[in-house]
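Minutes, project huddle
Topic: does the predicted pose make sense with iron/sulfur cluster bound?
PN asked that the exact inputs be recorded in the minutes so nobody has to dig through chat later. Recorded below.
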Amino acid sequence: MFPPLTTGYEERDGSIGERSLAFYERLARGGVSYIVIGDVAPVMTASPTPKLATDAQIPTFKALADAVHKHGAKVALQLFHPEYDVPGVGRMVMGSMAAAKAAQEAKAAGDEETFAAKMAESNEIRKQAYAKLHHDMQHFVNEASVEQLTQIKEAIAASAARAQQAGIDAIEVHGDRLVGSLCSAILNQRTDEYGGSFENRVRYALEVVAAIKEAAPQLMVEYKLPVIMENPDGTPRGKGGLQPDEACEFAKLLEGAGIDMIQVAQANHTGNMGDTIPPMGAMPYNWTLPVAERVKALVSVPVATVGRVVSVEAGEKILEDGAADIIAYGRSLMCDPDIALKAATGEPIRECLNCNKGCVDAIQNRKYISCVLNAENGDEATIAIKPGEGDKKIAVVGGGIAGLEAARVAAKRGYDVTIYEASDHLGGQIVLAAAPPRKDEIMRSVEYYEKILPGWA
Ligand SMILES: Cc1cc2nc3c(=O)[nH]c(=O)nc-3n(C[C@H](O)[C@H](O)[C@H](O)COP(=O)(O)O)c2cc1C
Ligand code: SF4
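Predicted holo structure (tokens), as shared on screen:
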């Protein structure tokens, strides 16, 4: 399974364009059987995530479903709502843009006074919009009216209905963000029927599930169950979502509500990516698995596990132990989309370093994701290794990481390649980079080349 990963590859209006399509089709071609499209918003937001908020967008999602289905894979949309008043902030941003436009028109007409006044107005509204966004991220969960929550639920259901029309196979309910904040005993301070007791805190989540099932009865519904795990020092990790005991109780309620599959994951709150996507050395491998195992013992629907399952061997062991039914490889599939195909043939897999450099850092800087080890990410439609021209002998001077990748690509193109390395080991400066505490996982990059280089033992 490819779990939800916001990519930034979508078009400006959130529709699926060529870049997105090529990325997801590449995963399906590599043998991924179930692909989840991360953070699909049911409303128009300023965030660079996919959006299925209007009927006009349905054909682009149909193209996605068709492309993935060609390779036998299934595709889900992870529907989410951010934890802020989207229309409220949106109106302010539009107001700021309108004032800026009026300022530019005044400038073009030589009216400097109006230009200055309109620019000041635009900046002031923008400042207020950011202040509201910041405030909402902390407080919207408690301040949203029942009417607002109902509208959000209806928007999610309408988006699910559009997904069904597009031929999408499943909806994944994003148990984090607004829904997870409502479930949380830490963040949710409401005193109405959506706050207080466990039953009240999970009420909205169950209502969302019911609304999706009613609006899109042909679709499978999966739930990303956000669990507050423990940090290595014993402190709780994250504030949204549910403590393990409550998560297990909730899993049973979800099964009763007709959920088809549960993905047990680390809880994340107010978009804090570090909680769910720890870099190398920060959390143990498979750190959410103990709760997945508990959930699996309680429900009869399939349970997926996600989080630092880096190798195929680790995934196989989880399946053999019966600890989970489905293995989600997130960053690992960014790094090598052919995990499934290579597992079948025994070809070495380029394993993710959990460095978070090309993927998480890019998203946090509002760019699109790419992997430091995979030059094709996001450019699958245009970049591919092509056969070489004629018989050439290539000498690569230096077995550092760049030399090794150049050699790999040249060999794939059919050239006769020799690497010349002065020292007795490969990797160059990567070996230094891996020396500090908690950085040794970087060496997976070099180990991959050691496995694929003929003559290197
Ligand atoms: C760049 C990036 C974007 C992500 N976006 C989402 C998202 O949109 N929704 C979500 O629920 N999780 C998101 N995640 C978390 C992943 O689904 C997954 O839980 C996490 O990467 C841990 O799995 P891994 O160790 O196999 O990468 C994202 C992860 C990454 C690396
Ligand atoms: S950039 Fe690093 S963490 Fe992200 S997918 Fe690539 S190797 Fe993995």
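Observations noted during the meeting:
- The mean pLDDT is 95.
- The first strand starts at residue 34 and ends at 40.
No decisions taken; revisit at the next huddle.
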